[in-house]
């Protein structure tokens, strides 16, 4: 059983999986049906046809696994059952008194799953005509049909019901599992695409577009998703890594990317999105954090902690290197125009750089 599961898990195409499941279940079910026919003492023709069907299924399963003839095999399977085995078994195995009508429904159900487009329509027309013809023949020529007695009829219908229902449940379960897997995969891809559309790939911070979307929301006082989004108690901090070009020139761009990533992690850990805060990469080695604080002193204290946390980072590639940042901090409540706010906080940042770097200006 585990080998069968492993084999099916390696098969990617859903229709091919269904094809093999039908062959696996069909072979097992046919063996049970053959044993039931022998126990009931049915006509030799019925037993021989069931045995021939079993050999056909086993042979087709073996050939499909060994020679990968699935595309041909599914047509053989559809037409063999609908146009030969089931009509023959219907006539020799009890006709309307048997459970063969359930098999007819199962065969047409399988046809719809295995074949596609025009091939499905053509096969359906051919097979339904053949199956209907077998029923009409049993009506017009009742002496051709070996009708079952009541006890044998009940046994045959019971066994057939178990086989057909188990096959349908197994196939539908596989389809639903495949659908769930596809849905989860699609959701993961959508989430990933959304993340890529709003976040900077290198740093993991939100990108400039998402930053301004958030700031626009704040300045328009749009409250949504129970997350604070007004200017009240809102502060914007803008940072720049000191002497980043020199660092890149001396240690290389790969190390520079590592510095950007490590500093970004500090900003991520220092902001709480659930409270309406956000950390973004503004461009190059510049960053912006939106934070919430009760007063300017608390806001400055939080921003200073970010600065000192970055100051404490040690680098394996350059043990003596100390990376610093400069920054500006401004309260949104003091401004009505977002552009003016950004301009002024940027001016504070460059004031910090002019006056010695490694400091925050409020």
Highlighted features:
362 residues, alpha+beta, five-stranded mixed beta sheet, 12 helices
State the end-to-end CA separation.
Answer: 70 Å
Tell me, what's the shape?
rod-shaped
Enumerate the strands of the largest sheet in spatial order, edge to edge or round the barrel: 2-3-1-4-5
- Secondary structure: helix percent: 55-70%
Order of helix and strand elements from N to C terminus: HHHHHHHHEHHEEHEHE
Beta strand %: 5-15%
Task: Give the oligomer, counting copies of the same chain as homo and different chains as hetero.
Answer: single chain
Main sheet summary: 5 strands, mixed
Total strand segments = 5
Q: What is the number of helices? A: 12
Mean pLDDT: 88
Structural class: alpha+beta
Low-confidence stretches: 223-227
Structure description:
It is built from 12 helices and 5 strands. It is an alpha+beta fold and 362 residues long. Strands 2-3-1-4-5 form a 5-stranded mixed β-sheet, sandwiched between helices. Strand 2 (278-283) and strand 3 (286-292) form a beta hairpin.
Q: How would you briefly describe this protein structure?
A:
With 362 residues, the protein is an alpha+beta fold. The protein has helices spanning 2-10, 14-40, 44-67, 70-92, 100-114, 117-140, 150-198, 208-219, 244-251, 253-270, 296-311, 338-354, and strands at 234-241, 278-283, 286-292, 325-331, 360-361.
């Amino acid at each position: 059983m585990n080998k069968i599961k492993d084999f099916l898990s390696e098969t990617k195409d859903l229709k091919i999986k269904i094809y093999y499941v039908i062959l696996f279940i069909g072979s097992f079910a046919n063996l049970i049906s053959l044993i039931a026919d022998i126990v009931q003492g049915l006509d030799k023709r019925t037993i021989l046809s069931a045995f021939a069907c079993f050999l056909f299924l086993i042979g087709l399963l073996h050939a499909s696994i060994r020679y990968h003839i699935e595309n041909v095999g599914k047509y053989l399977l559809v037409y063999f059952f609908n146009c030969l085995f089931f009509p023959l078994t219907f006539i020799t195995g009890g006709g309307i008194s048997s459970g063969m009508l359930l098999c007819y429904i199962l065969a047409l159900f399988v046809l719809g799953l295995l074949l596609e487009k025009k091939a499905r329509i053509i096969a359906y027309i051919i097979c339904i005509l053949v199956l209907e013809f077998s029923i009409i023949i049993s009506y017009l020529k009742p002496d051709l049909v070996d009708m079952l007695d009541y006890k044998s009829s009940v046994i045959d219908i019971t066994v057939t019901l178990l086989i057909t229902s188990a096959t349908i449940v197994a196939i539908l379960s596989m389809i639903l599992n495949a659908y769930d897997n596809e849905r989860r995969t699609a959701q993961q891809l959508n989430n990933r695409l959304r993340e890529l559309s709003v976040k900077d790939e290198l740093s993991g911070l939100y990108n400039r577009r998402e930053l301004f979307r958030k700031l626009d929301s704040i300045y328009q006082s749009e409250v949504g998703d129970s997350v604070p989004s007004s200017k009240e108690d809102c502060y914007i901090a803008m940072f720049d890594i000191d002497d980043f070009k020199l660092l890149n020139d001396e240690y290389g761009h790969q190390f520079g990317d590592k510095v950007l990533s490590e500093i970004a992690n500090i900003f991520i850990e220092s902001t709480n999105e659930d409270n309406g805060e956000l950390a973004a990469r503004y461009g190059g080695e510049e960053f912006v954090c939106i934070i919430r604080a009760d007063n300017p002193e608390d806001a400055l204290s939080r921003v200073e902690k970010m600065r000192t946390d970055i100051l404490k980072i040690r680098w394996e590639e350059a043990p003596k290197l100390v990376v610093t940042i400069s920054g500006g901090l401004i309260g949104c409540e003091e401004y009505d125009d977002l552009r003016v706010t950004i301009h002024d906080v940027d001016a504070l940042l460059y004031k910090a750089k002019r006056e010695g770097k490694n400091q925050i200006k409020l």
